Amino acid sequence: MSDVKVRLVNVVKEFPSQEKSGQTRAVDGISFDIYDGEFFAMLGPSGCGKTTTLRMIAGFEQPTSGEIILDGVPMQGVPAFQRPVNTVFQDYVLFPHMTVLQNVMFGLQMAKVPQAEARRRAQDALDLVRLPKVAERKPRELSGGQQQRVALARALVNRPSVLLLDEPLGALDLKLRREMQVELKAMQTELGITFVYVTHDQEEALTMADRIAVMAGGHVLQIGTPSAIYETPNSRFVADFIGETNFLEAQLVRRQGAEGIVALDDDTQVRVALPERGISDDQLVTLAIRPERLVIQPYNSAPPLPDGWEEVVGHVGQVQYIGTDMRYYVRIGGHHVRVRAQNATAATAHLIREREVVRLRWQRDNARLLIQ
Amino acid sequence: MALWLRGLVRGRGYALLSVPAVVWLVLFFIAPVIIVLGISFMSRGTGGLPVLPLTLDNYSRTFNVFGGVIGQSVRFALITTIVCLLLGYPMAYFIKTRRTRWAKGVALFLVVLPFWTNLLIRTYAWRFLLAREGLINSLLLELRLIDAPIQILNTEFAVILGLVYGMLPFMVLPIYASMERFDFRYIEAAQDLGAGAWAAFWRVLLPMTLPGVIAGCVLVFVPSIGSYVTPDLLGGNRGLMIATLLASQLTGSGNMPQGAAISMVLLAMIVVPLAVYVWTGRKEGQRG
Ligand SMILES: Nc1ncnc2c1ncn2[C@@H]1O[C@H](COP(=O)(O)OP(=O)(O)OP(=O)(O)O)[C@@H](O)[C@H]1O
Ligand SMILES: [Mg+2]
User: Fold this and answer.
1) Atom of ligand 1 nearest to the CA of A50
2) Which of A47, A75, A166, B235 measures 20 to 30 Å from B172, CA to CA?
3) Which residue does chain A place closest to B189, by CA atoms?
4) How many independent structural domains does chain A possess?
5) Residues A79 and A195 grouped into a single domain
6) A152, exposed or middle or buried, with CB in 10 Å at 0-12, 13-18, 19+?
7) Residues in chain B closer than 8 A to A82 (CB atoms)
8) Rounded Cα–Cα distance for residues B40 and B36 (Å)
């Protein structure tokens, strides 16, 4: 995990925009390092520049400015076919006029691997993706999931230094996607190849990646392990995009060391850790709490508030029963707060009813203060 | 004809729809061919008209006496096809890679522009350009690149030039059509797997646009081998091709059975490439 495989330094990509002679910035100055053997996910909404970044690493697009370094070698001016990377395209782009085996052998033939060895390695790659019996078929005679595996085999057979994957599971149905997520991750761990994995599916990124770069509008907002991104999002966007988050507008009332007292819009005051970045008095801030970190209690029969916990009072709006969980919509001041509680026993499901007054509690370090 | 054959091949439930076409073809195509075939085995009577007895002499003469002209026709048609392919493929690629619809439209328009004028007129125009006192010679003289006018008109070169000029659109358009369907991301995929420009062309672009190439070659070869006006006007006696030969056999006091035999040979030479075309088209159809 120490060697840097891919380094992006201040990479900018501008495209001529459709209207007039202006430029649109698809990628707006991003920098990060990807380490050897890492499963690195780039996550972000549609149009945030994920594909463009990947295409610049692959060599299909040239950065307008900035630098891309692969294995310590600057890639400026190195054409795609000479880069030690391979790509799994979103819709596979398998060669329709070649058989599956010919598709998989293509890269080896380009590398002048002797025919017999190429054939053997291609067959091994097909075994690896658990497709031993389709070698002589044409791609169009395969299902979507099978085509996806062929695309993977075609890339992996070349033993690339880095494998780029652009939403490789996007075209598959949910069940197949889950299966492939597990397989891909297992394969990556086994082969030890660095994966750069583009997705707009946060669950996919969270479950598979060693580290995630959250992107929006051509910028990288945050890079970190899945748990770091989930537990300590650095912005409202990240908190909202990864998982579900309640945002409560608040105002800083006073500081107490590393903590502050903030007032919610119903005037309840709660204590919360202050962010590292400076925060000025009376600044408008946002209190962010995940729905599953809130504990809901009936107003009258709640146990006493434990140490290190905070509490607000609200009115229950809707109650939804969703099998594994209960979901409550609780009104606090002008906000509707979502609460998720596990149905540990059948009885908990009906403990709290609509229009009831409740106490919402959370452990202090489960709430985060975000600067607006 | 190719369409009709393809229709039958793919037909299945649509056989009934082809009945009018079949009737039409039997009346105006199959029947005349059979009649010509019959005449080709007859002897020459007065005024070149066919009479009995039946004979194979016409065919032996076709190969022994006129074999040279037929060989020359095949050669001209092949050279024309190859030159058209070598010029037409890059042209189609050029059109396909234009960014805007506008640029593509203009380029395509330029390709078909010559069709707006009659072939005869265009060929006469070439005569003016290529003649001893023509535009090209005067220009070369003026630039002092040559001392005396060179012979361009009435050479093989002039014939090939004229044929290529006339046939090029038939090569460019089908290749362009299959290139338009080609997704350039296949090139990216090839590059990603380590293919340089050459390998990407041979292994991916060319195979995937092959249907257009075959169609273009057939569409150029078939009319070229039977062409009449161009070799006659631009080649003179150096441009003797089958059609010129046919004209001399079938007009005046020629030899109609001999002409019939020559046209049967010509027909055979056209049917073979067409069969290739239909066959590959069928394969394509099965795949698609
Ligand atoms: N070739 C191009 N020409 C002009 N603009 C482009 C080009 N490619 C991408 N863009 C623009 O750049 C921006 C980023 O595109 P990109 O494809 O990288 O997004 P993405 O994050 O991959 O989105 P998605 O999740 O939808 O695939 C978009 O606004 C897009 O319109
Ligand atoms: Mg994309």
Assistant:
1) 21
2) B235
3) A93
4) 2
5) yes
6) buried
7) 194
8) 6
- Comparison of pLDDT for A275 and A235, the residue scoring more: A235
DSSP-assigned beta bridge partners for residue A313: A359
Model pLDDT for residues A168-226, shown as the tens digit of each residue: 988 888 888 888 899 899 999 998 999 999 998 898 999 999 999 999 999 999 999 99
A188 and A90 in a common domain: yes
Nearest 5°: the CA angle A24, A28, A33 is 145
Are A58 and A196 in the same domain? yes
Nearest residue by C-alpha to atom 16 in ligand 1: A49
Strand partners, A332: A335
**Cβ(B97)–Cβ(B207) below 8 Å:** no
Chain A positions in Cβ-Cβ contact with residue B196 (cut-off 8 Å): 79, 81
Q: Are residues A263 and A150 in the same domain?
A: no
Q: Which residues of A43-71 are buried (b: 16+ CB within 10 A; e: fewer)?
A: bbeeebbbbbbbbbbbbbbebeebebbbb
Residue that has been written with the tokens 């350039």 in this structure: B184
Do residues B43 and B50 lie in contact, with contact meaning Cβ atoms separated by under 8 Å?
Answer: yes
In a domain? residue B41: no
| Whether the model pTM is above 0.90 | no
B206-214: average pLDDT: 93
Mark whether A235 and A280 lie in a shared domain: no
Containing structural domain, residue B152: 68-287
Check if B106 contacts A (Cβ < 8 Å).
no
- Does residue B6 form part of some domain? no
* Residue B53 counted as domain residue: no
Which residues of A, range 129-168, sit inside 8 Å of B by Cβ? 138, 140, 154-155, 158
Residue A43: which domain range? 4-241
A222 and A287 in one domain? no
CB–CB contact A58 B192 (8 Å): yes
Compare all CA atoms of chain B with the CA of A87 and give the residue at the minimum distance. B192
User: Is B118 within the bounds of a domain?
Assistant: yes
Total structural domains in chain B? 1
Helix (H, G, I), strand (E, B) or coil at B282: helix
Crossing angle between the packed helical segments A100-110 and A115-128, to the nearest 10 degrees? 130
What's the ipTM? 0.82
Residue A228's CATH number:
3.40.50.300
Q: What is the DSSP letter of A275?
A: P
The reply to whether residue B189 touches residue A80, judged by beta carbons under 8 angstroms, is no
**Token pair in block for residue B168:** 């090029």
